[in-house]
Automatic annotation (TrEMBL):
Entry's family note: Belongs to the MetA family.
Protein's organism: Mobilicoccus caccae
Record keywords, A-Z: Acyltransferase, Amino-acid biosynthesis, Cytoplasm, Methionine biosynthesis, Transferase
Protein name: Homoserine O-acetyltransferase
EC number from the UniProt entry: 2.3.1.31
Length: 292
């Protein structure tokens, strides 16, 4: 930030909403709060759940105590929004029970949120709704920790990243890199030879798309693997996760630093430095960005 701009800074807490679509909501909210809280900025969080879908894995008491619905916040403005993944990849978007409500949220984000971070299935949903880019089925589940390469080292989202870095994936569908490259408003920021697209963003930085799960804890992939084995599913050992790909060994977490950096960069460059001090003018700022 330039001295001129720094001298003009009025500082206030950032208002961040999280649309938590994961079945393990408490684990996911803890993972995301850990990443979002690892900066010098004050962050105020609003957790959102779907009114059109009843969660089967999180106690109603927890949802009532800590979550709001979109209807309760639709008239509010937020500096940032995170939309998580969801275990609904095998369905077409239109077949997802809460798809109409999620479309409302995605459309609302254009005028009521300054910058949105879309994660895993949330990234696929955002690309489909905003740009008409569909997902495609994979031959086998993309499952493990993969090496990625930065293609746009000057992109603010990857400021401070190494040329290559690790990140977890856990998904049955993918997004074509060629489809992203064909969209004038988007740029490919990081990919993996094995896992494909990892990070893309709109050129104004207001929409970030992450196809993996940088927020995952050390044991999250292990929990998914153990669950599927217990159910008798034909699931491969997550690649690059256990030492020697041996599930008898304790897994290693080798992606934490870049996960923290990704979220810190988003909060700093896409949210804090660009969102209006007066949140009520976010829609005007968004319109100005789109015209530029």
């Amino acid at each position: 930030m330039s001295r001129e701009r720094a001298d003009m800074q009025d500082i206030r807490p950032l208002s961040i909403a999280i649309v938590n679509l994961m079945p393990t909501k408490i684990d996911t909210e803890t993972q995301l709060l850990r990443l979002l809280g690892n900066t010098a900025m004050q962050v105020e969080i609003t957790l959102l759940t779907m009114r059109s879908y009843e969660s089967r894995n999180t106690a109603r008491q927890h949802l009532d105590a800590f979550y709001r619905t979109f209807d309760q916040v639709r008239d509010e403005k937020f500096d940032g929004l995170v939309i998580t993944g969801a275990p609904v990849e095998h369905l077409r978007f239109e077949e997802v029970e809460y798809w109409p409500e999620l479309c409302e949220i995605l459309d609302w984000s254009r005028t009521n949120v300054y910058s949105t971070m879309h994660v895993c299935w949330g990234a696929q949903a955002g690309l489909y709704r905003h740009y008409g880019i569909d997902k495609h089925e994979l031959d086998a589940k993309m499952f493990g920790v993969f090496e990625h390469r930065v293609h746009q080292p000057l992109a603010p989202t990857v400021s401070g990243f190494d040329e290559t870095f690790l990140a977890p994936h856990s998904r049955h569908t993918g997004t074509s890199i060629a489809d992203i490259e064909a969209e004038p408003d988007l740029e490919v920021i990081a990919t993996s030879e094995e896992a494909g697209l990892y990070l893309a963003a709109s050129k104004d930085g207001r929409r970030i798309f992450v196809t993996g799960h940088p927020e995952y804890d050390r044991d999250t992939l292990k929990g998914e693997y153990d669950r599927d084995i217990a159910k008798g599913k034909d699931i491969a050992v997550p690649r690059g996760y256990y030492p020697g790909d041996d599930p008898a060994q304790p897994p290693r977490q080798r992606w934490r630093s870049h996960a923290y950096l990704l979220y810190a960069n988003w909060l700093n460059y896409s949210v804090y430095q660009r969102t209006p001090f007066d949140r009520s003018s976010i829609s005007n700022a968004a319109s100005a960005d789109e015209e530029d």
